[in-house]
Amino acid sequence: MNCSEAMIEYMHDYLDEEISAENEEKLREHLLTCQECQRHFHELKKSIAFVQSTSHIQAPANFTVNVMSRLPKEKKQVGVKRWFRQHPMLTAASLFLVLMVGSFISGWNQDHEFTVSKYPNLVIENTTVIIPKDETIKGDLLVKNGNLRIEGKVKGNVTVINGEEYLASAGQVTGEIEEVNQLFDWIWYHMKKTAKDTVKLFSEE
Amino acid sequence: MDAIVKKRILQVLKGDQDAYGEIVEIYKDKVYQLCYRMLGNRHEAEDIAQDAFIRAYININSFNIELKFSTWLYRIATNLCIDRIRKKKPDYYLDAEVAGTDGLTMYSQISSKSDMPEKELESLELEETIQKEILKLPDKYRSVIVLKYIEELSLIEIGEILNLPIGTVKTRIHRGREALRKQLRYV
Known about the structure:
By secondary structure, chain A is an alpha/beta fold. Chain A contains seven helices and eleven strands.
């Protein structure tokens, strides 16, 4: 194997696909005449083919699981974020609930003003509304943040929110009497009202 | 594919561990194969391949997102393999050769459960021979040969993985090829 080092260098350049056209021609010509180099070149190509022929092996079955179990623990925050991402319906529902309850509560807390449905024959003393004897209220009556004393007649429903209601023996209410004091009553009242309004809406149509 | 990997890396950087699982899935076979061809032992290969992924995860902050992730990962894996080769502990594995026997491994001590078809046996034998010859290469030639002919990477990429100038990579490949030629000429 005493052929010039240059020829072997060309072989490697050829195998690296970095040979110039000129050198490739030289190599080809030389290989035609030199058996020694021909064999050398063939052996090189054969060994490459052998190495390339080795089958592609795959990682063991639970490789990824094993790697993941050995990783350092991740930050909690991300876990929570991912939970939200994976449960969009639950997230939306709970968000909705939080907002609803929040608005009810703030509605409850902010409404501390004394209000009453306007009727000409009502008597108001501080925060107490009095329906005098012999007077008749035609329609529903709503009192917020105040008390109500009924000595006369109401032809309709009576609702007292955050206050008390006294029905004198002579007093008369044709509709329902409702007293709302607690937070949950307030929410319940709202829901009932919404439901009633909805039903009314449909029945009116 | 590179775009997916990039996206997953950004998620990992934010602390999302599940995204890393997908990266492991994408590269596990290539990294495992690289380790196996470098070390010649499935057990060790799995150990080192896992270590490589864990190191990559821990040091993901130092990875430049504009570069190719596989290059970086292969570099970690190759370095771990070379470290392991250099300070090889006398571990005992089933597929290690038993001293004083010619090619007998501990597997031969375990009775075979299945009859292997002739053909498969033959191809396995050839594979074993080739693998053995690859393992005989000094590690600096072994790494370039494995990266070039088994992982099928370009010379430029091999240079980046091994942190070597391209000229050195070429020289090593040439010498590796010559060594393999001598070893495999009569196969």
